[in-house]
Amino acid sequence: MTTVEKARLFALTNIALHDALQTTFASKFQHGMWRPVTAIRRADEDGNAATTADPTWTSLIAAPPYPSYAGNMAAIGTSQATILALFFGRDDIAFQHTWAGAGGATRSYAGFNAMADEQERARVYGGIHFTFDNVAGQSVGRNVANYVFSNLMRPRQCVR
User: Fold this and answer.
1) Are 79 and 142 a contacting pair, CB within 8 Å?
2) Domain count, the chain
3) Could you read off the pLDDT of 57-83 as tens digits, one per residue?
């Protein structure tokens, strides 16, 4: 890639990331949805006699101090995966990534969206999101990235 192409990719990924994140943060305070920790601890207040509260339940990942819907990380991961797939014209570029924060664990992915999907699932498995939070977050990320890629930082056509 040329320096200009690298700069364009860097700009597109950053614009998409920040616009997707702004959108999901706004939705959190629009909808005010409980996180799983609150829903599980206060299940006796949900109007369903078939659920029982567990006031001592806690998530594996510390729950952020703001509402759950839509999922920020799902939007971030999907916005980045979408921009990369659009930029390279495909989503089947295999790669590996070593996560220093996870003790140096190395993960292999078949493509960009495979990593975004794993990132999304980790937030559910960690106990800080419901699946519907992340489905919405991925939708935001995909929509924002498609708009950004189609409308911003377009390559210039050289006329000679």
Assistant:
1) yes
2) 1
3) 999 999 999 999 999 999 999 999 999
CA 131/CA 86 separation, integer angstroms: 25
Range of the domain at 80: 3-151
Judge whether 118 lies within some domain. Answer: yes
- Reported as a single tens digit per residue, the pLDDT across 115-157 is 999 999 999 999 999 999 999 999 999 999 999 999 998 887 7
Residue 158 lies in a domain: no
- Find the CATH number of the domain harbouring 131: 1.10.606.10
Q: Identify residue 154 by its one-letter amino acid code.
A: R
Q: What whole-number distance in Å separates Cα of residue 129 and Cα of residue 44?
A: 20
Residue 157 belongs to a domain:
no
Residue 124 lies in a domain: yes
Confidence tier at 44 by pLDDT (50, 70, 90): very high
